[in-house]
């Protein structure tokens, strides 16, 4: 089983990236968890670059192919001003028109000092609108990730 993990944060030592690394480390035998690290390389979404019959920018095409090939997706995101980080929303905007992701199972995690419930609610709304299958509508939020724990998984 192949799972693609996406951190909504661009920070190199992000608690959300650390959470995904920890999840990958404890994945059961037979489950491969690959962390997508191309969020920062995606161009700003422009519908003119995503019209039918027009090849999307190379980083977008690569992300779409990666996710289409996956059995499931895990997204771990911080919360900024009660919402999603712009870089994550940008990636999702590029994925809206990709029918290969309809009914794709996705789990949502968050490591956020204030809990992340608003970002998670927004993410569930967006993914449901895109016809992704939010796993059990269940989310895991980790309000307080200690610096020691985050450092351990930030490598």
Structural description of this entry:
34% of the residues lie in helices and 21% in strands. It is of the alpha/beta class and 155 residues long. It has one domain: Flavodoxin domain (Rossmann fold, 3-Layer(aba) Sandwich), CATH 3.40.50. Strands 2-1-3-4-5 form a five-stranded parallel sheet, with helices on both faces. Strand 4, helix 4 and strand 5 form a beta-alpha-beta unit. The chain is globular.
Mean pLDDT: 88
Largest sheet: 5 strands, parallel
Task: Specify the helix fraction band.
Answer: 25-40%
Give the count of structural domains: 1
Global shape = globular
Short description, anyone?
The chain has 155 residues and is α/β, with parallel strands linked by helices.
Short key terms for the protein model shown above:
155 residues, 5-stranded parallel β-sheet, 5 helices, Rossmann fold, 34% helix, globular, alpha/beta
Write the layout of secondary structure elements.
Blueprint (H helix, E strand, L loop, with lengths): L1 E6 L7 H11 L6 E5 L21 H12 L2 E5 L9 H10 L9 E7 L5 H13 L3 E10 L4 H7 L2
Helix pairs in contact: 1-5
């Amino acid at each position: 089983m192949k799972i693609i993990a996406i951190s909504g944060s661009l920070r190199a030592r992000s608690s959300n990236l650390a959470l995904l690394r920890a999840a990958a480390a404890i994945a059961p035998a037979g489950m491969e968890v690959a962390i997508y690290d191309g969020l920062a390389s995606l161009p700003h979404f422009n519908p003119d670059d995503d019209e039918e019959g027009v090849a999307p920018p190379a980083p977008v095409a690569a992300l779409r192919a990666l996710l289409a090939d996956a059995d499931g997706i895990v997204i771990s995101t911080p919360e900024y001003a009660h919402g999603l980080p712009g870089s994550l929303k940008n990636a999702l905007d590029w994925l809206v028109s990709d029918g290969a992701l309809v009914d794709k199972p996705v789990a949502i995690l968050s490591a956020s000092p204030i809990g992340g419930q608003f970002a998670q609610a927004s993410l569930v709304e967006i993914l449901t609108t895109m016809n992704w299958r939010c796993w059990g509508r269940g989310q895991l939020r980790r309000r307080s990730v200690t610096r020691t724990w985050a450092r351990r998984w930030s490598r």
